[in-house]
Amino acid sequence: MPKKCTNGQDCRKYKSYENGEDNNASILQPIILVGMIITFYIIFFRMFKRRFIDNSEFGRKTTNKSEYSKPIISLCLNDIVLKIIGNNAHIIENVIEPLSKLCSISEVFVVAQVSNDTQETNIINLLKKAGVFDKGLKEHRLMFCSTSNGRASMIRQLRPLTHVDNDETVIKTLTGKIPNLVQIYGNTNTGGNSNAFTSLQAFTQVICAVATVEGIN
């Protein structure tokens, strides 16, 4: 029931008290609202980070645009980028430019099959000397294996969008496990395979054209 005032002074005191309560409530309401919003965003951010940012599946769910925002392509170096003879290796002619272009439109991981540590060291030094790591390829994305089965296993774990290889056995092993498989032949006889190219240059020309249409590069 509303309070009855016995005189004017009591009424003024009561109204002043009511106004004070209203002012306190009006101050507390936005503070409580802001606190609720901050709490919500803290909880949401933690859930968001745990689900996306902490996921290490090579950027498939990351929201960081600077990391893995481009399609992932894995590439076998043997007989496509370099030739290994004994413990020595040399870069195949005219492959540095297409490799650099490939690195500019995708996240490139490369793998070389070697038989000993000396070959591995020589390949690293060769790529450094050729300036490959200064033209888009990141050194920590250079991988090594000792067998074709090991190479296929590494690619399966990497799970790229596209894998480029020259070994038909590796291609067959990865069929159905990797979305796109491209085989590089050393000659013009591709057996009518639409996913086969005669060189890295030929493949890069096609993939760059696709990237232009998709607005990647």
From TrEMBL:
InterPro entries with a match to the protein in the record: PEX22
Pfam families to which the protein is assigned, alphabetical: HAD_Pex22
TM region positions: 27-48
UniProt keyword terms in alphabetical order: Membrane, Transmembrane, Transmembrane helix
Cleavable signal peptide: none
GO terms of biological process kind: peroxisome organization
Full protein name: Peroxisome assembly protein 22
Organism (species): Plasmodium vinckei lentum
